[in-house]
Amino acid sequence: MAKNRYSISLIRNERESDYFDFWEKGLKVNKLGESLHSDLVGFEVIVEASNLQEAISIVKEKHPCSTIVERYSSKVG
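and the corresponding structure tokens:
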């Protein structure tokens, strides 16, 4: 079976609050006065898999300390 490419969005370890403040509330600075930006709070991994759930499983194994954001993860291309 052919594999598809999936983009899996992750929140950096211990950046959950900053991630939601930046992406959902539109804040540019956290409670500590630190400037927030996309690379600081999260990152994206592209993997080949048969389906989205397999892609998520692959990424969970590679990045066990990061939180996967399923709603922003999807098939690409």
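(Above: one complete record from the training split.) The chain has a mean pLDDT of 96.
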